[in-house]
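hey team, just a heads up i'm posting the complex here instead of the shared drive bc the drive is being weird again. everything in one block, sequence lines first with there labels, then the predicted structure for the whole assembly after. its two chains so it's a bit long, scroll down
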Amino acid sequence: MAEISIRNLSKSFGRTQVIEDVSLEIKNGEFVVILGPSGCGKSTLLRCIAGLETIGSGDIAIAGRIVNDLEPRERGCAMVFQNYALYPHMSVAENIGYALKVAGVPRSERDARVRVTAALVDLTAYLDRRPGQLSGGQRQRVAMARAIIREPKVFLFDEPLSNLDAKLRVQMRHEIRRIHARVGATSVFVTHDQHEGMTLADRLVIMNNGTIEQVGTPEEIYERPATLYVAGFIGSPPMSFLPGRVPAGQGRLLLDSGQLLPLPRDLARAADGQLVVAGLRPERLKLAEAGRGTLDAVFDFAEDLGAQRIFHLRIEDLTLTVASPAKADLAEGETLGVEVSAGAVQLFDAGSGRLIVPEVSREFASA
Amino acid sequence: MIERTPILNIVTHAILISGVALILFPVWIAFVAATHTITAVNTAPVELWPGDQFWVNLQAAWSQSDFGPKFINTLIVAVGVVAGKVTLACITAFSIVFFNYRGRMVIFWAIFITLMLPLEVRIVPTYAVAANALSPFQAILDAVGITHLLDALAGIEIALEWNLLNSYTGLILPLVATATGTFLYRQFFLTIPDELVEAARMDGSGPLRFLWDVLIPLSKTNIAALSTIMFVYAWNQYLWPLLVITDRATYGMVVVQLSDLVPDQLTTGGGTPTWHYAMAATLVVMLPPIAVVILMQRWFVRGLINTDK
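-- predicted structure starts here --
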């Protein structure tokens, strides 16, 4: 059992506050991805768990034991680094077995365990090579094997896939998932890549400016982003935002551009009379002929991604993005309609940036 | 940029070859002088082709300078300096680079500025310390007043003494206490990525283990380069052994012995310079440093061209 419990953790480097009062509970065996832009404190948080950084205030407990003042080796964590950090003068086998050597495990047992671990990550053929003779993906696997062999209670990944090319990254993603299913250790994975986050995580933690914006399953985060920040961060292409207000009792959203958007009744009731920002997912919108959609917008340009096209439109000086598999031959400056179904609109409080949740689904969400 | 034109090739080779000739010609002259009798050497014009006296001269020079034991002495000192320097430099640089403590930079700069004070510059104070290695501590005790206090209270007189004159220790220690190696190691240690240090920490390796298992194997080429430089440096020492060793029969070093073969008015009171012996002896004395350079060459050349990453 190795649940991780972080309570009111703060950390600063000199005068810069990097982590501000962060609390997080990670269950045993769970795969948690911490996602955020560079400089949001996600790596520092991971390094605090590992014991590579001292913490400012608060507590970190692993498997019920407070580890604030323990050395990294006493915490039962293994870490995979972004630049692999393999020992360049040791063979693959020596790299994998080094932790056991330090721990004083006898040679015969060590060799046996190195073989088993190497087989798990398909490295058996490379045991005698030096890291310098391996490709990026192979080095990454050595780094994984080095972590696995210690049978740690907790796996920590510090952006381990950022140095790989796109294809290999997808492949390693599956591999990490597979190994996690096999080994079952609690895993914390830090990345700035939302695709990695969405595909790997049991639960996602979105960080920004040293604080946690939202914790939830990938689906929850995508469907019900708690704040404007999360809404804009998750999703590719990103959500479009249109400010407006919900005039009292009208049950509709009046955009600043003067156009009207229909709202589901319970959402309209929850947001009644408020200044709001409407969030629209590009993939939930459809193009229509001018005047036939819910909104009218001006066409700017389109990106063709093969499977789908991304249409960049303008409503006054705001951008509205529509992702659609449909082909459309449009000229710049042309006016066209956009179909918005009532269920596709999410409202955020214009002041606090928090998601406005209708009464019914609020109960549903907490269930 | 690589230019490939025949004319440029010829010119650059001509420059290189003339440089080599410039360096090798005196060595050739020394070798030729070592193969003739003293009369032939002292006759103008200078002989340019070897004679048949090489073996005779060599034997005479060897026995006259008592080279057998002197070579062993010099070897002991050179190896001692190399071992001391490599160890000391490695540990100091390790401390300065990988540990965070108060006064770390002060210590580094204190070591660094000794680069500006080679042995020749501080030879008088160094001699004073060698005459009594504990004199700095004595001076501190005197200055703080502990000596006086103990004398007054308990009647004990403190007189620390550790004489290093006429000993291997006295020959070796002052040559070890320089900053070159520390600086070399520091620069290398600074290139070690932080993640490697952290990976070792995660693997449960403590600082000394990390030094032994990771840093030292990685700095093999550094050690080779430093060893070579220090070996040649220690082997060629003249001034310091001349000063600190008065018992030349027991502790004499080869380079100092060489000077005896060419007596002059100032140091040895005159006599006939035996150039043919001196040249033969010089050739022999040159051999160990050359051997070390040739042996170590492939190591530090590899260190310069292959970062193994």
